Amino acid sequence: MSLKPRFSIDQAGLNLIRIVIGSYFMALSIGLVAGLDPAAIFTPLMPALLADILGGTTMFFLSACFMAGVQLRLVALSLAIFVFSNSLTLNMLHVVPGSVSAFWRDLTLTCAVLLSFSSLSGAALRRASVLAHRARLRRARKTEVNPRRITLPARGKRPIQQEIRGALIAAKLMRRPRNAQDEPEILNIFANL
């Protein structure tokens, strides 16, 4: 039997935390803050200017998608691998006295990215998307339906209706049968045509 936690952060709080982490990586990609170099893994493969453009664009795109919650699991994992590999390449190939603390900082941020989606269920992941939130039925109640017949109670006739019916019946009984002599003669004006 599992107990529900007494305190939990709702989806809006988790989205805000994810946006703060993503904005840090976005600021790194455009060079607003000092820290990780996004071009570190591309520098051995291509010229420095092209590596800087490709690394910055990749980190900017991944962090923007991470902030928006688009395909959160895939994007968060891609961003974590990208940051970890850049930090490992930049700080651990040539170890200098300050590089371990920079690697530790980047590793902590990588873990924060991974924690942003690891505890979310499928429904919570759909709600985590800032751009494409769709309302869905969370749980349908499954209960048996027992139909029952509804019968209307028999209505009694109102007293005025009973009096009217009685008067009509009495009028029929009091009426004499008609004879041909009692009828007035009807003049047919079309008889001579």
Write the layout of secondary structure elements.
Blueprint: H1 11-30, H2 48-68, H3 72-92, H4 99-118, H5 122-128, H6 159-174
Helix pairs in contact: 1-2, 1-4, 2-3, 3-4
Characterization of this structure:
This protein is mainly α. Helix content is about 55%, strand content about 0%. The longest helix is centred in the first third of the chain and has 21 residues. This is DoxX protein. Keywords: Membrane, Transmembrane, Transmembrane helix.
Shape: rod-shaped
**Residue share in β-strands:** under 5%
Please give the radius of gyration in angstroms.
Answer: 43 Å
User: What profile does the largest beta sheet have?
Assistant: none
- The strand count comes to 0
Head-to-tail CA distance between termini: 106 Å
Mean pLDDT: 78
Helical residues, percent = 40-55%
Helix/strand/pairing category: mainly alpha
Low-confidence stretches: none
Highlighted features:
6 helices, 193 residues, mainly alpha, rod-shaped, 0% strand
Short synopsis of the structure:
The protein is mainly α and 193 residues long. The protein has 6 helices and no strands. The model has no long low-confidence stretch (mean pLDDT 78).
